[in-house]
Amino acid sequence: MENSIPTDQEPTYTVKLLQLLLLSTYWGMQIWVTFISSFIMDHNLNRHTYGFIQSRLVPFYLHLGSACAFFNLSIYAVYHPRDIMDDRESFQIFIFFVSVTVAAINAQWFGQMTSEIMVDMHLIEQACGLGQDIGLSSNREAYAKLSESDAKYRRLSRRLWMYRLLSSLCNLCCIGCNFYSLSYMAENLVKL
Question: Which residue of 23, 96, 143, 157 has the fewest C-beta atoms within 10 A of its own C-beta?
């Protein structure tokens, strides 16, 4: 029985372009969401507006990133059969697998929990007249007092910190995986 996918041949131009577009799209989103838009919004929006935008933007970003990672892994696996891979190709497929796994966990669990907890915290903050200050680091004393006086808010705050930390670590892991993948692709370019 003959295999219909040309795994023993070079991928077509279209396949190479698709892989590059997926990888660069994911990389660009990661850099923009992680290092640019978050800092701009933090310094220009009030807490609740920032939180609302993040609760809509981040799940979309995480799910789209998961899809890009999955399709990158799929394309690479099709054109690199396990029985003829060298060590570098095996490591590259491992990197794609790590990226897919971590991105999916972040999208399905950590990102979702962060958004849900943030909504609950915003309701408590609004009831106390908080949330309209610009920047996440402003008016810390009022939020510290709220945390001291409201056990539910304190519990939510701790959970939010934990899920944000885990989500950030997942995001940084995926950024590292994509940096390695981009480096691997650049190393294998024949011409520029």
Answer: 157
